[in-house]
């Protein structure tokens, strides 16, 4: 006879709502503490102060916490950048893989876009049911919602999973240049990932995010005296101008794909036929297939410069993979919809052009559902807000999803 399964029914979503509501006062107190700490991406001490706070909370919940100090970034646009630590915490559950237990990753970031001093200039405030302050929505409200959901499950004595992994990064707002490798390594060992960015302003979760690729195109021409013998030159600036028009014309060729030439540099003196020019452009695309199509089109345009005697080289500088809506992530969203319905609200999903750590996790092949924090908006602005009435429902939803996904019940 085989050994009996260690599975048992998890808590119903509605049973988690009351305990989530009882945590709202503490949540707001803790959120005020986090928002009062300046933790811009370029402020490693501030980010590490947040990491200290998160580590204390996770340790109290039985997690083994590792702090990783990444090496400085070694390439553009942030050469020699130092950031705060990456925090990776792990907690084993009561299930094994043989029992159907799954490894669940919760991912958030500790950095904000704001400079040191912003927390003092614009401190945490409550205006009715709306909280304001730097990072209140992006991402301190979501980070704290994840910790609150874990605290709720701890109190309930629930650990229906093989392992929980909590990842908090220090540099998401600048493209995760130093934490990317760590994020990808952590992601490769899990079965499902839940992104703790806050929900969209209408309450939607995020099911897909576009990928981003940055390119540099260098146009080489031939210098000549512009007044005496211009015919001996090959004007790289003119070739670049034609190329800008051709590249911008790619917009609209494929659904959801955008191409933007954001930087144009050419020449040094007006009396010299321009010998060199540079274009910097960004491509955003919803799928890897679309990315490949766009790159081929860029290379084809570069292979046919409009000015005789010029040549163009194409270099890809950076790439963040798309977070695509897969069958597995669609099943995760369906489970979230059922849990939300049990909690008394409807749940939608959307795709966005913004990127985040969820893209990197998805790029490893792990199904991801993002936007599981409370409802917020006006990110990166002085008007940033968080709807505190959504905190209990979203915490209960997150805790429910951990129990649903953790025992393999959503695999079918």
UniProtKB/TrEMBL annotation:
Cofactors, names only: Zn(2+)
CDD domains: M20_CPDG2
An example molecular function term from Gene Ontology annotations: metal ion binding
Keywords: Hydrolase, Metal-binding, Zinc
Coiled-coil spans in chain: none
Annotated catalytic residues: 111, 172 (proton acceptor)
Residue span(s) of domain Peptidase M20 dimerisation: 208-308
Listed transmembrane segments: none
Pfam family, one: Peptidase_M20
Record InterPro entries: ArgE/DapE_CS (IPR001261), Bact_exopeptidase_dim_dom (IPR036264), Pept_M20_glutamate_carboxypep (IPR017150), Peptidase_M20 (IPR002933), Peptidase_M20_dimer (IPR011650), Peptidase_M20A (IPR050072)
Protein known as: Peptidase M20 dimerisation domain-containing protein
């Amino acid at each position: 006879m085989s050994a009996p399964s260690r599975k048992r029914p998890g808590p119903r979503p509605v049973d988690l709502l009351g305990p989530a509501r009882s945590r709202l006062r503490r949540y707001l107190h803790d959120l005020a503490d986090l928002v009062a700490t300046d933790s811009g991406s370029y402020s490693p001490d501030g980010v590490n102060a947040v990491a200290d706070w998160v580590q204390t909370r996770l340790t109290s919940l039985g997690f083994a916490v590792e702090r990783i100090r990444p090496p400085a970034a070694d390439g553009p646009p942030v050469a020699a950048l130092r950031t705060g630590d990456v925090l990776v915490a792990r907690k084993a559950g009561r299930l094994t893989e043989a029992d159907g237990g799954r490894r669940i990753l919760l991912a958030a970031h500790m950095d904000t876009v704001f400079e040191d001093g912003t927390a003092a200039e614009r401190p945490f405030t409550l205006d009715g049911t709306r909280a304001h302050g730097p990072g209140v929505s992006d991402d301190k409200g979501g980070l704290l919602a994840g910790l609150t959901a874990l605290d709720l499950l701890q109190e309930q004595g629930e650990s229906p999973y093989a392992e929980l992994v909590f990842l908090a990064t220090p540099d998401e707002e600048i493209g995760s240049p130093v934490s990317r490798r760590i994020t990808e390594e952590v992601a490769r060992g899990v079965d499902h990932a839940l992104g703790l960015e806050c929900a969209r302003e209408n309450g939607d979760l995020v099911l897909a995010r576009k990928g981003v690729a940055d390119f540099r195109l260098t146009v080489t021409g031939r210098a000549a005296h512009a007044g005496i013998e211009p015919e001996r030159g090959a004007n790289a600036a003119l070739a670049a101008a034609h190329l800008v028009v051709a590249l911008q014309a790619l917009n609209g060729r494929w659904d959801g794909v955008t191409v933007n030439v954001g930087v144009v540099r050419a020449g040094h003196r007006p009396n010299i036929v321009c010998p060199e020019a540079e274009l910097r452009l960004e491509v955003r695309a919803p799928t890897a297939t679309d990315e490949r199509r766009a790159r081929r089109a860029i290379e084809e345009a570069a292979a046919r410069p409009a000015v005789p005697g010029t040549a163009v080289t194409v270099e890809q500088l950076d790439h963040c993979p798309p977070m695509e809506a897969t069958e597995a992530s669609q099943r995760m969203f369906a489970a979230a919809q059922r849990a939300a319905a049990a909690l008394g609200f409807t749940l939608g999903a959307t795709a966005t052009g913004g990127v985040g750590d969820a893209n990197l996790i998805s790029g490893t092949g792990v199904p991801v559902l993002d936007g599981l924090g409370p409802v917020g908006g006006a990110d990166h602005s002085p008007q940033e807000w968080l709807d505190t009435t959504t905190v209990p429902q979203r915490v209960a939803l997150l805790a429910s999803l951990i129990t649903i996904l953790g025992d393999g019940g959503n695999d079918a």
